[in-house]
User: What shape does this take?
Amino acid sequence: MAFELFDAWEDTYRFVIDLGQEVAEMPPGQRTPTALVRGCQSQVWLYAHRDDRSGNLRFDIDSDAHIVRGLIAILLAVYDDHSPAEIVAFDIEGLFDELGLLSHLSPTRGNGLRVIVQRIRAVARASGDGPSTPK
Assistant: This one.
């Protein structure tokens, strides 16, 4: 990510929001109560499936909040189209520290980001036998 290009957090914040504009909207049929991520300040939906060819996990994640969509773009860059083992092993907290994300988000927003990560990792751990979005 190009966060080091910015001197002020406000510029980084705008960049994160711009990243969110690149995230494809989740089809309405996937915005189900099962896909809703509980514990987030904003509404966030997460749908996961396994790619038939590679066996990697693919994620559709969406939110009703612009900044959260930007944070989702970061998570998709890290986790989408990776193996369950890679997803579980990735040091996301290290990346958050490197980017300085959590120090600039409200505690509620930071906790919500961690809840999304926990859900992604739970999907990866549970995905041994096929596609699903855990309840």
